[in-house]
Amino acid sequence: MRALSIASQSSDPFRAGLELGEGLHELHPEVVFVFSTVHYGRSSELLEGLHEGLDRSDVILVGSTGDGYYHHRQCGDVGCVAMGLDSGGKVDWQVTSIGGVHIDPEASLQQAWSQIRWLNDNQDPQLMFLFSDFRTDASEMEKVLRHQIKIPVIGGFAADDNQMSDCAIYVGDTCLKDSLVLLSARGDLKFAIHVGNSISAVGKPGVIEKSDGANILSIDGLSAMDFIERETGKPVLQSDRGVTSLSILSKDDDAVKRLRAIVPDFSISERSVGLYGGIEQGERVQVCLAEPEQLLQEVGSIADHCRQQDFDPQAALIVSCAGRKWLLGDKVEKEVTEIVSGDWVDLPLAGFPSFGEIAPLPIDDGYSDNLFHNMTYVLLLLGE
Question: What's the rounded Cα separation, in Å, for the pair 226 and 270?
């Protein structure tokens, strides 16, 4: 597999897309991932320019807006990045998109998965990528990801420069709203998934007693806000978005950890807690507080572990929570530079800070079920 990534900071969407396309032209990619800041996603000009630069009509293009973008040795606040992949025909790529994720996220993903299966002759592909509008209850999609899709799925929820109001999903030459896109890969493909979400828990666990979609109303006989204040010693503030999370404690496996970031903007009352994705009643949760040094140490450990494996990747894709970016500040570039160093200094890399991450967890015999995460770092390495 051959790969190449390129970024642009041009303020004009068509010009930025043209720069990306011309940069990838000689690769003759089969698939292009494109991620951008949100102002590019208000029209299809970025994608039109990219297609013109590629000068090909048969390229599969997918991606989304993010809270910035990740490129080789760079975490940009304004701009866009594209990464092209060429397997030389060894990988069969299939793509589909579905609307209506806000109204019925579970049914939307079920429909997209059925279409992907049909496009793959009713066989399971080896790997899938999922990008979705963030304005939905991601935990409803997780039901399909965990219980119906038994192959690894990597992806995330589009973001919008911390505005919490708009985003776009990219597929072909179109910018979609209220939609998701699925891309499948089947053939001569090797990959490795690495996940970082070991944020420290504080206080005692509690049981979710009442919830309403992505809002938690009561925990352990207290309002959700009072429970968090009891365990942390302070109220939840607007500035805690991306810092304070709830960890869902698995009933069956302590190693399976899922985080739900607290989003005060989503709260439906003063004492409820809004999240990016819901938590079912009866689940046990524990408050987690993110610390910058802990996040950086974990990324360093992941990078070291990657290089110890018997795998020579040709490309890297990163989906990392926007909350990590806000917390790390100018140190967020470590999430990229820790990977592209040493023997991997020229490794093509692209990605974006997201409003929710999708990935299985590495376990002893492969990977766990696919899970929805917050405050999590997802690294996918691709090769033959």
Answer: 10
Q: Are residues 232 and 287 in contact, defined by beta-carbon separation less than 8 angstroms?
A: yes
pLDDT at 320 over 90: yes
pLDDT of residue 75: 93
Question: In whole angstroms, what is the distance from residue 334 CA to residue 336 CA?
Answer: 5
Residue 352, Cα to own-chain centre: how many angstroms?
7
Cβ atoms of 360 and 369 closer than 8 Å = yes
Residue 50: which of 95, 98, 96, 7 has the closest Cα?
A: 7
Q: How many CA atoms lie within 13 A of 149 on its CB side?
A: 33
Q: DSSP secondary-structure letter at 279?
A: -
Angstrom distance (rounded) from CA 311 to CA 306: 8
301, HSE (Cβ side, Cα atoms, 13 Å): 11
How far apart are the C-alpha atoms of 82 and 322, rounded to whole Å? 19
Cβ proximity of 32 and 24 under 8 Å: yes
Q: Which two tokens stand for residue 133?
A: 């509008």
pLDDT at 310 over 90: no
Give how far Cα 240 sits from Cα of 16, 195, 229, 296, Å.
34, 23, 12, 19
- pTM for the full model? 0.93
> Cα angle at 8 between 172 and 133, to 5 degrees?
45
Helical spans, DSSP H, in 220-315 = 224-232, 292-308
Distances (CA, A) of 90 to 30, 60, 85, 113, 203: 10, 15, 11, 22, 51
- Residue 262: name the closest of 249, 251, 250, 272 by CA: 272
The helix/strand/coil state of 166 is coil
**Tens-place pLDDT, residues 355-374:** 999 999 998 889 999 999 99
CB atoms within 10 A of CB 361: 20
Q: Which positions ≥6 away from 293 have C-beta within 8 Å?
A: none
| pLDDT above 70: residue 252 | no
For the chain, where are the alpha helices, taking DSSP H only? 13-24, 45-54, 105-119, 138-147, 224-232, 292-308, 322-328, 334-337
CB 1 within 8 A of CB 314: yes
Return the structure tokens found at 121. 């002759």
Block residue for tokens 């990392």: 320
In angstroms, rounded to a whole number, what is the distance separating the alpha carbons of residues 332 and 366? 29
Backbone angles phi, psi at 112, to 5 degrees: -65, -40
